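Incident review: delayed structure delivery

Summary: a single-chain prediction request sat in the queue longer than the usual turnaround. Root cause was a stuck worker, restarted by the on-call engineer. No data loss occurred. The affected request and its eventual output are reproduced below so the record is complete for anyone auditing the incident later.

Affected input:
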Amino acid sequence: METTNVFDTVKKSVAAYGAFSVAVLATVVVLSVTGHEVSSFMWGRSAGMFASAVVTYWFAVLAARGKRWAYVRVRIISVLAPIALVAVDSIPGALPLWFVVLQIAGAVALLPAAFLVNGRAVRGRLRSSE
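Output delivered after worker restart:
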């Protein structure tokens, strides 16, 4: 797969992760506005997921343009974010089931990006740039 095609797929994967992060954050906002109990932990997790999606997408765009520093950050975030999401969401009783399901779905959506940017072909092409 050509590097530009790889990054098109990476951007789609990160965008899907972003869509799940928007769903989580929007649900937290709606619940809060309608008087349901929403913990500060839920606010922080949902806002953090959204922020990481925005930043990761920006890095993916720059990496697609050959910016090695951005590529390295996409590699790191695309691996660590799913691990962190699943690890924290696995704490029994810490978060409601709907929250856990949406965040894990976002983590799963980010996995293709992790595999692609850590693949041999992309690493070799971006190793020598910038």
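Verification: Residues 51 and 104 are 16 Å apart (CA to CA).
Action items: add queue-age alerting; document worker restart procedure.
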